[in-house]
Design goal:
heterodimer, A: mainly alpha, 7 helices, 79% helix, 0% strand, B: mainly alpha, two-stranded antiparallel sheet, 2 strands, 65% helix, globular
Chain lengths: 164, 351
C-alpha cells in the first residue's frame, strides 16, 4: 500500500521535474514545479514527517510558487524560444551533473550506517517531537537561521527602498 | 478480505457522499440566504416566486446555469482556463474532510461525525487555503483579458497578504491546546460551555477578530471584494467564464464562506459543544444525544454566515492601498502581539 503510493508520487515528482525543464511557457513550468513540490510533500508524509509535509505545501507550493506565478502574470512573460544551448553546458554540464550524482550516491551508500534511516509508512514523527528537538537540542542553529532570514529581508528592503 | 473491512469501506464511502451532498446543498442555500438577507437589508423581498418563500430558487438557478451555453473564448489558454475553476471548487470543498462536526462516536470502527481525524488538521486547512489561490490566479491569467488579469493580480496579492495575519491569529489557539488536531482543540473547549470557548475563556477575542477580518479578505468578500469589483473590473477574474465554469467559481466562493465558518466555529466558538455546558439536562435517547452536537455546530456556522451577509449588506468596499495598509500595518502586528500576550499568560499560569 505505502509502496504503491511511493511509486505513484515518486513517478509524479520525476515527471513534473522533467516537464518543468521541457515546457517552453514559464507558467507551465511553474505549475510543474508546484506538482513536484506537492508530490515531495506526499513523500515526506510517507516517511512519517507530517509537519514537514504540511510546511512544504504551505510554504513552497503555496506561498513561494504563488509569488512565482504572480511575477509571471505581472510581467506577462510569453513563450520562450528553444535554443541549441551553449557548448559549455554540453561539455561540462552533463558530465558534471552525472559526477555530482555519482559522488552523492556513493557517499550516501557508504555512510548509510551513520545517517540513520526512516521506513516508508513507519514511525510517525509528531509535531511535539519535532518541536522539542528544534527548540531544545538545536535551539542555537535554529535561531541563527532565523536571524539570517531577517538579515535577508532587511537587505531586500534596503535594495528596494526609494532614495529621497 | 474480511467482511468487517468491506463494511468499514462501505460506511466510509457513504459518510463521504452524505457529507459532500449536504455541503453542496448548504452552498446552494447560502446563496439563497444571502439574496434574502441582502434583500431585507435593502428593504425589498428577495426571491419569492419559485416555490414557498422562494425556497426552490437555488434549484432553478442551478438548472439555469447548467443549461446555459458554455462559451470558450478564442484567446484563452485552454488547459489552464479549464483547470482553474476545478482547482477553485475542489479546494473550497475539500476542507470539510478534516472538520469535526459532532461528538466522536464510532459505529463499526467508523467515526460518524468526521471524515478524517488528522494530527495536523489545522495545517491541512492552511495548506488547502494556500493552494486555493491558484484557482483565481490561473483563471485571471489564462482568460487573456485585462480585467481578469487585474482581478487575479489583486486577488493573489490580497490573499498572500492576509494569509499571514490569518495563520498567525490561529497560533494563540494552538498554544492554548498544545495540539494541531482539531478534535483536541474542540475537546479543550468542551468543559464549561460558553465560558471555556477559545473566544471567551481562552481570551482569544483579539485573535478571533483578526481571523474574522482576514477570512473576509481570504474569501474575497465585501468589504474586501476588490478582485471582482464590478464597477471597475466588470467581474474581475471570472469575467470570461460562463455556464458551469462560472457556477464552479460561484460555488467555490460560497463553499469557502462555509468552510471559514466551520473553521471559526471549531477554533473559537467551541465546535460542536453546547453553549450551556452541563446546565442542560441530558434528554432524549442515544440518537438525540448524538445529533444534538451537530445541531449546535450548524447553528454556529449559520450565525457566522449571517454575519458574513450582514457585513456585505452594510459595509462599502475598501480602496486598494487602504486594504494593503490595513493588512500589513494593523492586522499583522496585532496578531503578533496576541501571540506574545498569550504565550506570556500561559507561561505565567504554568508557573
Amino acid at each position: 500500500m505505502y509502496l504503491i503510493l511511493f511509486l505513484i508520487f515518486g513517478a509524479l515528482c520525476v515527471a513534473g521535474a522533467l516537464n518543468f525543464l521541457l515546457q517552453r511557457h514559464p507558467i507551465n513550468s511553474a505549475i510543474s514545479l508546484i506538482v513536484v513540490m506537492t508530490s515531495l510533500a506526499v513523500l515526506y508524509l510517507l516517511l512519517g514527517a507530517e509537519f514537514l509535509a504540511a510546511a512544504q505545501v504551505i510554504v513552497y507550493s503555496g506561498a513561494i510558487m504563488v509569488l512565482f506565478t504572480f511575477v509571471i502574470m505581472l510581467l506577462n512573460a510569453g513563450e520562450e524560444e528553444r535554443t541549441h544551448g551553449s557548448k559549455a553546458a554540453y561539455i561540462v554540464g552533463f558530465p558534471g551533473a552525472a559526477a555530482l550524482l555519482g559522488i552523492l550516491t556513493y557517499i550516501f551508500l557508504k555512510q548509510r550506517d551513520h545517517l540513520g534511516s526512516a521506513k516508508i509508512g513507519g514511525y510517525l514523527v509528531t509535531t511535539h517531537d519535532l518541536s522539542s528537538v528544534l527548540f531544545r537540542d538545536l535551539l542555537l542553529p535554529f535561531e541563527v537561521t532565523s536571524v539570517l532570514i531577517l538579515v535577508a529581508i532587511l537587505g531586500a528592503v534596503a535594495l528596494a527602498r526609494k532614495e529621497h | 478480505m474480511e467482511v468487517s473491512i468491506w463494511i468499514f469501506l462501505l460506511l466510509s464511502v457513504l459518510k463521504v457522499i452524505v457529507v459532500t451532498v449536504v455541503l453542496l446543498m448548504a452552498v446552494a442555500y447560502t446563496v439563497l440566504l444571502e439574496r434574502k438577507l441582502v434583500g431585507r437589508i435593502q428593504n425589498r423581498w428577495g426571491p419569492t416566486r419559485v416555490g414557498p418563500f422562494g425556497l426552490w430558487q437555488p434549484m432553478a438557478d442551478g438548472l439555469k446555469l447548467f443549461l446555459k451555453e458554455d462559451i470558450l473564448p478564442t484567446g484563452v489558454y485552454r488547459p489552464l482556463y479549464i483547470l482553474a475553476p476545478v482547482i477553485a471548487l475542489s479546494c473550497g470543498l475539500i476542507t470539510i474532510s478534516v472538520i469535526p462536526f459532532g461528538k466522536q462516536i464510532y459505529v463499526k470502527g467508523v467515526d460518524l461525525f468526521q471524515i478524517a481525524d488528522v494530527n495536523i488538521g489545522l495545517l491541512v486547512i492552511l495548506g488547502i487555503t494556500s493552494i486555493g489561490v491558484y484557482g483565481i490566479a490561473l483563471s485571471g491569467w489564462s482568460s487573456n483579458n485585462k480585467y481578469s488579469l487585474l482581478g487575479a493580480l489583486r486577488a493573489s496579492a490580497q490573499m498572500i497578504s492576509y494569509e499571514l495575519a490569518l495563520g498567525l491569529s490561529l497560533v494563540g489557539v494552538v498554544l492554548r491546546t498544545g495540539s494541531l488536531r482539531l478534535r483536541d482543540i474542540v475537546n479543550i473547549q468542551a468543559t464549561h460551555g460558553l465560558l471555556s470557548w477559545n473566544i471567551f475563556g481562552g481570551l482569544q477575542f483579539v485573535a478571533f477578530f483578526v481571523y474574522l477580518i482576514s477570512a473576509f479578505a481570504e474569501t474575497n468578500r465585501t468589504p474586501f471584494d476588490l478582485p471582482e469589483a464590478e464597477s471597475e473590473l466588470t467581474a474581475g477574474y471570472h469575467t470570461e467564464y460562463s455556464s458551469m465554469k462560472f457556477a464552479m467559481f460561484f460555488m467555490a466562493e460560497y463553499a469557502n464562506m462555509i468552510m471559514v465558518g466551520c473553521v471559526a466555529t471549531v477554533l473559537f466558538l467551541g465546535g460542536w459543544t453546547s453553549p450551556f455546558g452541563d446546565l442542560l439536562p441530558e434528554w432524549g435517547g442515544v440518537v438525540v444525544q448524538a445529533l444534538l452536537p451537530v445541531f449546535w455546530f450548524v447553528v454556529k456556522v449559520f450565525c457566522f454566515l449571517f454575519l458574513y451577509v450582514w457585513v456585505r449588506g452594510t459595509l462599502p468596499r475598501f480602496r486598494y492601498d487602504q486594504l494593503m495598509r490595513f493588512g500589513w500595518r494593523f492586522l499583522l502586528p496585532l496578531s503578533i502581539a496576541n501571540i506574545i500576550a498569550t504565550s506570556l499568560w500561559l507561561a505565567f499560569r504554568a508557573t
